[in-house]
Every structure is written in C-alpha cells, then in structure tokens.
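DM from R.C. (forwarded with permission)

"hey, sorry to bug you on a friday — could you get me a structure for this? deadline for the figure draft is monday and I only need the backbone to look sensible"
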Amino acid sequence: MFESCRGRQDLVICGVSGGVYAPQTPQIVLGTSHRCPPTRSTSAAIRSDCSCPEPCQTASMTKSNPLLLAIGVLLVGYGTNVSTPLLVLYKERLDLGDSATMAIFTVYVLGIFATLLLAGPVSDRFGRRITCVPFVALSALASLVLILGRDSFLMLLFARFLLGAVSGVVLGVGAAWMQELMGPGHEQRAAVLSTVVAYFGFGLGPPISALIEQLGADPFVWPYVLHAALTLAFVPLMFRLPETVTFSERPPPLRPQLGVPPLALRTFWLVIVPATIWVFSFPSTSFALFPVIVSDAIPGYEVVVAAASGTLTAWSALLARPIIARIGARASIPLALIAGTIGYVLGTIAFATDAWGFVLPAAVLLGGASGTITAASLGVLGEMADPATRGALNSTVFILAYPGMAMPIVLTSVGSITGLTAALVGVTLLATIAAAWAVTAFRRNVTLVA
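My reply, with the result:
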C-alpha cells in the first residue's frame, strides 16, 4: 500500500500524518511555477522532487477512501432514525401527547446547532479526520443512552440531542471531506455520494427497528444494540482515512462563518437559502408526523406503516443521482420543490380523510425532494468553494437545512390553536411560494454555475 515518494511526479498524500505535502523545491501548481511551503491546496502538482516524510501514499492509491467515509456517514444516518418508527410506542409507553412525542424527534435539532456552527471552521483549521471520526463513535454512545431512556422522557431527549450533535459534525464535515477525497472537478459527484449514503442510512433504521419489533424482541433495546455494535466495530477503520487539510502558518479563524465565496453570494442568497430551508422540512413530516397523526386509522400496524414511511422517505433521496445527472443541479432545485409541495398535499389529504395510504406516495415525493435539494445545493456551492473554508461552507448548508427538522412540532403546536388540517394547508401554501420562487429564479438564470 505504501511506497517511497522519491521521484514521484504526482500529488503525494503522506502515509504518516495523512497530510498533502507540497515540497520546498520549485514545482508547477495549476500552471504556475513557484516555491510553496505546505499550504491548504490539495491540487495535483507536477514535481521534480518530494520532501515529505516517508512512507507516502500517492493519490492514485486512495480509491477506497471515499467508500470508507461513505460507510461512516451511512452508519450515522442509520443511528439517527433507529428510534423514529418507535415514536408511536414511546407515546403509548410514556403516555405522551402529540407535541411531547414530536419533541423526542425534534430535540435533535438543538444538538445539531450545538456543533454545526463550529464544526466546519474547526475542521478547516484542525483537519477533517480529528473532527469527524470521534463523533461517529459518539453515535454508538447515543444509541446506548436511548436504551437507558426507554422509561424516561428526559433521557430520550438527551439521547436525541446527542444524535443531533453527531449529525451536525459528521454530515457537514463529511461532505467537505468527501469532496476533497474525490478531488477537484468531482464536487457534484461527491455531493451526490455523501447525500445518497446519508439518506440510505436514514432509511435503514426504520425497517430494522420494525423487523425486530415484529419478531418479538424488545424494540426498546435490540435495535440500538445492533447499531452501536456495528458502529464501534467500524470506527477504527476510519482512522486509516487520509487527512485532506494541510496546515499553513495563517490558519482560518476559529469562529462561526458562512464560508461563502464572494462570487457565490448572489447564488447563495437568491437560490440556495430559499431552497435549503425545505431540505428537512419535507422529510421530517413524513418521518415523524404523518405516521403518528394517521395511526388511529391503522390499529395494530402503526410501527409497520411508520417504518415504511420512513424508509420510503429516506431511500427516495437516491433519486437525486439520476435527476441531477439528467437535468443538472440548477434545474433540479425547482423540480424538487414542486415535488415536495405535492407530497405535502398528499399528506394533508391522508390526515383530513383518514386515507392513510396517501402517506406512502407522499413519502416518496418528500424524500426525493429533500435528497435532490441537498445534493444540488452542495454541488453548486462546492464548485465555487474556497478550499480553506470548504468545511464552513458545507456546514452552512446544513445550518440552513436543519431547522426544518422542527417542522413536526411547529405544525402540532400551531395545529393545537388552528386545527392540524389548517396548519398543514398553511405550510403547503408556503412550500408552493418557495417552488414558484425557485422556478422564477431558474428562468431568470440567477445561478452562476450549471
């Protein structure tokens, strides 16, 4: 796997520290001959000598790295939704109301913001690996805490908070890490890959939990044990991933920042921001709200329907790959918002008429919309990102997206005043306005890159 780098003419990633080393001798980087000390650039260099520590691993020998990272992201996504189809059981076991049940799901958002604001800048300064990998391990710990919380509402809230903290780091930093592992020119592919594996993981939790419950095993214990065991077994392999951030004498500031390049500001505010606030507003209703509010219409099958809805929501995000490949990231955003709006319409019909079957096609539309907006937004911004602030930029996308996880509790809270049907109609109208705005922006060619 490792060999001496002396005399190599390509980019070298050091097998000792994982850093990308630029030699002190003259070289050509992006067509410009100059002497360069270690910098944050991960661009390939045509070089005559190598002064990095031996042994070294060449960039051409790291094809397995994106796969290792993808599995880590998948495991975090999986852990996030192990408890989701069990919400109806927690509601009965702990005698909770609708809003308290939704709080178990949405407290996750508080954990996300506890880490997401600083995770990107920290990883830009100290590295992706040291920031990301420990939080993958923390995902396993959160599952074990959920076992302890099976009879405690407060413990459940704490465990879900921990899962949010994990996601805040791993999804944002992992997306930046994936783009750097796959290299310049592959930003959109990396964005799609990191999105697809995260959503595939989101979709694993519900059916596994439902299967364990149907087999008669304790659903409040064994789904979490399985996730914790798989995660802890895999974490040591992630330490083999190379560090893609190299360290300069002037590191980026360690403070919350957007990381948006000046040339991307117009795209960011007029296209990305209005779209990404729906990234989790769409699927959170399908994961957590619709199965709960139609549960009275499906006695005895609540967990099965909740699991089916959750899995369809998550795995429909895989539609992002063919959609973006066919029509491009720019056109995918308005299409996704239209699909999500239709999903809200179907969910509202399911609740208002007890026609619970509409929840399932709604899940497909809401999940597909979420995955497509995520991948398209990360890809569009990734092509314009400054490598020194890539982590902050990717984290910013998720900062905008994750408040949508609170949509179920917002709707039940508003619904307690106006009636839930009126609340659902209201949010559907807001989604319609967002879709109309995105279509208008696309027709006026607001975005700067395809």
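R.C.: lifesaver. The first helix runs from residue 65 to 80.
me: no worries. The chain has 17 helices and five strands.
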